[in-house]
Amino acid sequence: MIKATFMVFLGCLFIMPNLSSYGLDGVVSDGNLMIDGAESANWTVMYYLCGENHVSYVAKEMLDNLTKVGSSNDFNLIVLRDGNQQGDSALYYIEEGRTVNLNTLYSWPNELDMGDPNTLKAFLDLVMEDYPAKHYALMILSDCGSGWQGICRDAGARNNGIPLMTMPTFADVLKDVTNDGEKKIDVIGFMPCVTGMFEVAYELAPYVDYMVASEEHLLERLDNGQEYVWRYLEPTWDLKNHTDIKAEEFASSIVDYYRPCDFPLWVFYGYMVIVKKGEYGRPVEFLSNILTRTLNSLPNPEWHIVATHTTLSAVNLSKVDQVARAIDNLSSLLLLNKYSSDVRNSIINARSEVREYGKSYVKDRSTVIQYINFPIEKLAFDSFVDLYDLVQLLNESVENQAVKNACKDVMLKLDNAVIANKAMPDDESHGLSIYFPKNKKLYNKYLWSNEIPSPYEDLRFSQDTSWDEFLKEYLGV
Prior knowledge:
Helices cover 38% and strands 16% of the residues. The chain is an alpha/beta fold.
C-alpha cells in the first residue's frame, strides 16, 4: 500500500489439540458458543492479517467487517489477526455479528510474529485440520509489499529494518501444509502492493490453484476513498451464500468487484499525509499544487511527479508452467543473439517504453528525504515491468523472426493464464509483471535495506529458466 512506503521512510511451533480431543461438540469461550469443527464444509476461507505495522487499522476494520458475513454449516471463516499493540494477536472463528476468540481453546499466545513462517504454518495446519473443507482460500494482508523479494512484515517482532518472509520460505510453508501440493489451496489473495509478479505465481503454482494480486501499488481508504480499495467483503459474502462457486469463479469475482483508478502523487505528499495527517492548511496545499504543476510541465519526464495507476488480476496457476517454458525459450534466443544489434536495440527500446510498477517506492535509500516530498520519476523504483507489454514491444521492434515468434508465444500463454484483469482503459497492464532492473546496480537490490534476504537466484523461476542469465548478460552483472 502506498502509505507503507512513506511510513517506512519516516521512521514457535505451538501444540494445538483437535476440538474432538476435548470431547465436546461445542465450546464456550469469552461467553460465546463456539462452532463444531468436525463436519467438512464446502469452503474454508482463512484471513492472515499482519497488522503490526501501519495497516493495523485496516486489519481491525476487516475483522469487524467480516462479522457481517460470518460462518455457516457449509462455510468456515477463520481469521488470525495481529495489531500494533502488544498482546493483541488472536485467532478468531467468525460468526455473523460476532467474533469468537480461539486463543484459550488452542493455547495460543496473545502475541505473535506474523512474519515468522512457523506462525503461518501453525495457522494453516490448525485451520485445515480442525475446519476441514473441500476448498480453501487464503487472504494475506500486510504493508510493504515487495513482489518476489518478500511478504508479511511484522514491525514489532524484529529490529533489523524491514523484516519480511522471503517468497521461497513462504512457498515452503505452502508445500508443507498442502503435502507437496497433494491438497492444494484453491485461491490465494495478496493485498500487499506489487505482489502480482510472474516470479511469485511460479513459486506458488505447485501448491495453489489461483492467485489474485496487483502488479501495482494498492490504495488504502485514506488515499482515494473506500471505493478504490481491495473489495474483500462482497466476494466473501457471495461465497458464503453460494458455496457451490468454483475456485476460478471466486478468484475472478474478487477482480470483478475491484475498481481501478489513477492516483497521482504531489509535492509534499509525505509531509501532508503522513506528518500532518491531512491537517496541513491551505497555504501548504496551494504551494504543493503550484510546484506539482510546474514539475509536471517540464519537458523531461524524469522530473514529473509519480502517478499510480492501480490494477488487480487473477491468474490460473496451472498455466504458468507453460508461460515459464515460453519465457525460457525467449531468454535462450535473446542470449543466443546477444551480439545482434537488431536484438540488442529492440530490447533497449522495449525496456525504455514498458509499463513499470512500484514507483511509490524510492529507488535509492540515500534519496529518501528528497523523495518523501518530491516523489519524481527520476528517484522512483523502476525494476518491475509488465511481462506482456515487454514482449509485445519487443515483438513490434525486432526483425529476428525467431525472437518475434517466441514473443508471440509468451503473449499467447499469458492470455491463457490470466483469467481476469482490471486496469485503467489506456494502461498497458496485462496481469503479471516480471523483474527487469534498468541497470546492474539495481540487480538484487533490496527495497528496504542493504542486504537482500533472499537473492533472485533462489527463486524457482530463476532455477528453472534462463531469465536470470539473460538479465545478467544484458545488464552486465
